[in-house]
Amino acid sequence: MTKKRKDNKPFNPRVTGDGPVTGEQYLQLQRKLGLELAEFQAFLGVSVKEHYLIAAKPAEPLADPGLCLHVRLLDAYPELVVPEPAIEDLVRAVKRIKRDYPETAIPLPATAGAVALMLGRRSATASTWSDGQVTPARKIMALVRHLLTLLDERDDPDRVLAHYGALMAKEAAARGVEDLFAVRRWP
Length: 187
Known about the structure:
By secondary structure, the protein is mostly helical. The protein has nine helices and no strands. It has helices at about 25-35, 35-45, 50-55, 65-75, 85-100, 110-120, 140-155, 155-175, 180-185. Helix 4 crosses helix 8 (about 155-175) and helix 7 packs antiparallel against helix 8. It starts with about 20 loop residues before the first helix and ends with a helix.
């Protein structure tokens, strides 16, 4: 059971601070979120090699600002850690819709290949969607997904965006950039 504060919000002790995000904080976040190593790596889009380089020198700041921002975001919003839907879930949903609403004009059989086509992909490559060949790096796409989730599902997207801006400024300050929004580039 998650501890609650007096205002009934879940207690969320942070693992990141004002300084640079370190490998130790990255590893603490894995423990905080309760994810297996493979889940954690996939969730953040971190390769096995990158993870072990981070774990080998836990006191050092993480080199990738995008990864640091993702760690800070998940530290602030651990509720983002939910099981990812599988393609089979979407196939089942399409099948259910075709069954429950037979008049629905979906002129395709409800298969993974059909779902791939519905998503603008070749059905023959449905199994390679997440291999990074046709999309930005997974860790960036994971960050995009989480930001979009927050902006789409919360009733205060303006506050979430403002808070994310503050997280960006904090990360930039930790890297020696006083005004990221004036400089407009990561060091």
